[in-house]
């Protein structure tokens, strides 16, 4: 066999192999893509929404490994863990005072109904539903209380806001976990009025306590005077001539005990002395 025949045979053999190999590679790639698109893993804390040719299916995939129809079904993951939404709100109280506050809300999506939320609202549910619902709930409840009651009944106000907001969110397949309302803030004029009212109440309370103290002290003095008068009355009833004479003798005896035996050197005045004849 000459060289030309050998050369002509080699390209022909390689061409046939290439023609067979290329389709096999293509088929393998197609099968690999089909296999890759036939499975999905739903991550922890999420659920899988099944879209089939753009339509939302009633099936919701839980966490874990799942099969799907390749190129026909698409899985949209959605977070069902507790999330936080914070909103600054301005409302009017029952007595038409402007009230501002910050509301922080913890909520989560109802896992088994995320497909309905996706179909009706989409993934922008916080901006479309949660924030407006917070504002509406705060305004509705704040209007039921005066500015002073918003401060004194803060826990009651918070409970009503939570109840109202929970009802609104449940309509869109969301559950409210907790709500925190920061301190209600009012205008500087109202704050000054509140401060002056508190000062007046404190002064009134002090005056009342002072009056009560004076009344008690006066009553104590009256009772003391009554007691002293009663004591004197009883003493007068007990006084007799013999008691008077006895008191005089006791006084003279005390004077003798204190006398040092010397007469006073001062002249021009009477010399006090004890009449010993009276001492018996």
Based on the coordinates given, report the CATH architecture of the largest domain. Answer: 2-Layer Sandwich
CATH superfamily of the largest domain: Band 7 domain
- Indicate the percent of residues in helices: 40-55%
- Side-by-side strand order of the widest sheet: 3-2-5
> Mean pLDDT, nearest integer?
80
Structural class: alpha+beta
Which spans of ≥5 residues are poorly predicted at pLDDT below 50? 276-280
What is the global morphology?
rod-shaped
SSE ordering: HEEEEEEEHHHHEHH
The CATH class designation of the largest domain is Alpha Beta
**Domain count:** 3
Task: Report how far apart the termini are.
Answer: 185 Å
Summarize the biggest pleated sheet.
Answer: 3 strands, antiparallel
Q: State the CATH topology of the largest domain.
A: Tetrahydropterin Synthase, Chain A
Structure, explained:
With 280 residues, the protein is α+β, with helices and mostly antiparallel strands. It has three domains: 39-79, no CATH class; 83-186, Tetrahydropterin Synthase, Chain A, CATH 3.30.479.30; 202-257, no CATH class. Helices cover 54% and strands 21% of the residues. The protein is built from seven helices and eight strands; from the N terminus they run H-E-E-E-E-E-E-E-H-H-H-H-E-H-H. It has helices at residues 3-36, 114-120, 125-142, 147-152, 154-170, 188-238, 241-258, and strands at 39-42, 46-52, 55-61, 64-67, 73-79, 83-92, 98-109, 174-181. The strands form three sheets. A three-stranded antiparallel β-sheet has the order 3-2-5, covered by helices on one side. A three-stranded antiparallel β-sheet has the order 6-7-8, with helices on one face. Helix 3 packs antiparallel against helix 5. The chain is rod-shaped and about 165 Å long. The termini are far apart.
